[in-house]
Structure formats: structure tokens, C-alpha cells
Design a protein that fits this description.
This is Cytosolic protein. It comes from Vibrio casei. This protein has 257 residues and is an alpha/beta fold. It has one domain: Rossmann fold (3-Layer(aba) Sandwich), CATH 3.40.50. Helices cover 33% and strands 18% of the residues. The protein contains nine helices and eight strands. Helix 5 (122-130) links the parallel strand 5 (115-120) and strand 6.
């Protein structure tokens, strides 16, 4: 992939020359995963995003203006970003070519000292699975799926679990492995499956939002704004003021229809 070639040359430069070569942006297709990146400044955080279920893009949808899920959030916050967008419906980032790319990429990002991961649901799985490989420092996960290995999560009876069995759930990166990363996991404790997945991330700060459910409708702008405010705070400060959002959560998710 062209990003790897560029990084290989870039790493041979002095820190001053590395900074002078930025910004650098581009995109590539790794079989069934589209990757788009924008590297701005080694002194700013580098955000990784992986797309959630429900963002089922097809190959013909891709063009030079297409942005993967989460990419524009990073652009708005003016931080470095590498975003991964799955193609198709049942795609759990298990493609060997993607994994091989990530294994190479992980050793070529040493100048970026602050690495963040952000994901919802399926994207949360990918952040959790690749966090240690990518040496993430901080993660923000909304109702993530920790794995689809039925031996580890026999209580996950969702239809998506059966569909996911077409992939290998025993080889590398099939389960959460946060490494040294800390951060937050946000979920609805009344959703039994989400609650059990969340309990598999004991080192993360848990923010329980009753009534949130699993997912957000794209037309629900109020709830999207709630999510976006937390994401912006996380990106800029790597911390979230949970007390600030508790009251907002009650307003957004417990209000009567």
C-alpha cells in the first residue's frame, strides 16, 4: 500500500524534515476495506476509526470525495486520522490483507506519540482487537462487540453472530486486547448483551446510559450531537467529564416520547 511506502521513506528523515513533509493524505482499497488518511502534525493526536455496522458501503459507492465513518470528525478537530471503512454487510475486519497491513503499519508510526481509537459496535470491536497492535494510548468505545468467538461469548445470540461465523474467530486479533490503552466504554446497561460485552473491558471507565440502546438512528440529530460532544472532548483532551454528560444523557435518553 502506498501509505506504507511513504512512511518508510518519511521515517528515514530527521524530525524537522518529517514535520516539513506534512500534511500528507490519501486513500487505498485493501480488498474489502477502504482506508483514508490525513497526517497533519506529529505533535497532534493520531486518531484511528473503524466503521460500525449499518454503514454498509459498496465498492461502487467509493470516489475521491468519499469519507469513511469517523474521518470527518477528525478533520473537524484538526488531528491526524487513519480511517477504515468496511465494504458489504457482514464484514468484521478479518481480512488477512488488512491484518497484514496493520501489522506493518504499527511499527511505522513511532513519531506519533499520542494515538487514539474511536469506534461504535463493530468498529468498537476493531479498536479493541487492534489496540495493542497499534499501540493505542486512549480509546473511546460505544456499545462495542468484544468478539464474535462463540466459545468466549456464548450468550451473544444476535443474528450478526451467526453471520460472522464465516470468518476465523480463533486466529490473531479475534478478541479485545487493549494493551496499555485506557479510556471509556459507553453502553446501555439494560441491553443484556451489550452489558456482558462491556464487562469484558474491566480496565475502561464505564459510562452507563440507560435508554441509549444499541446504535443511533442517522436522523436523530440530538443524540448524534450528544455523541459528538463526547468524541470532541475525548479527541482534544483524551478525557471525558462524565458528570457533565450524565445530565445530558438523562435529557436525551430518558425523555418521554
Amino acid at each position: 500500500m502506498k501509505l506504507l511506502y511513504w512512511l518508510s521513506e518519511w521515517l528515514s528523515l530527521s524530525p524537522e524534515d518529517q514535520q516539513a513533509k506534512l500534511p500528507h493524505s490519501g486513500s487505498s482499497l485493501l480488498d474489502d476495506v477502504f482506508v483514508k488518511y490525513d497526517l497533519l502534525d506529529v505533535n497532534k493526536p493520531l486518531l484511528f476509526t473503524f466503521s460500525p455496522s449499518g454503514t454498509d458501503i459498496k465498492g461502487q459507492d467509493l470516489n475521491e470525495n468519499f469519507s469513511p465513518w469517523g474521518y470527518q470528525v477528525a478533520r473537524q478537530q484538526q488531528v491526524n486520522v487513519i480511517s477504515f471503512q468496511h465494504l458489504g454487510v457482514s464484514n468484521w475486519f478479518r481480512n488477512p490483507n488488512l491484518i497484514h497491513f496493520l501489522e506493518q503499519l504499527s511499527s511505522m508510526l513511532t513519531p506519533f506519540q499520542c494515538r487514539l481509537g474511536y469506534g461504535l459496535s463493530r468498529g468498537g470491536f476493531a479498536i479493541g482487537a487492534f489496540a495493542n497492535l497499534l499501540k493505542l494510548n486512549h480509546v473511546l468505545l460505544f456499545y462495542p462487540v468484544s468478539t464474535k468467538n462463540k466459545m468466549l461469548v456464548p450468550w451473544d445470540g444476535r443474528s450478526s453472530t451467526e453471520l460472522a461465523q464465516q470468518f476465523n474467530w480463533e486466529n490473531n486479533y479475534h478478541d479485545r486486547n487493549l494493551g496499555e490503552a485506557n479510556g471509556y466504554i459507553i453502553y446501555d446497561p439494560t441491553n443484556d448483551i451489550d452489558k456482558l460485552h462491556a464487562q469484558r473491558y474491566p480496565k475502561l471507565i464505564q459510562f452507563k446510559v440507560v435508554g441509549m440502546g444499541h446504535g443511533v438512528h442517522p436522523n436523530d440529530l440530538d443524540r448524534q450531537d450528544f455523541y459528538n460532544q463526547m468524541v470532541e472532548q475525548f479527541i482534544q483532551h483524551q478525557k471525558i467529564d462524565i458528570s457533565q454528560f450524565n445530565e445530558q444523557a438523562k435529557t436525551q435518553f430518558l425523555k418521554e416520547d
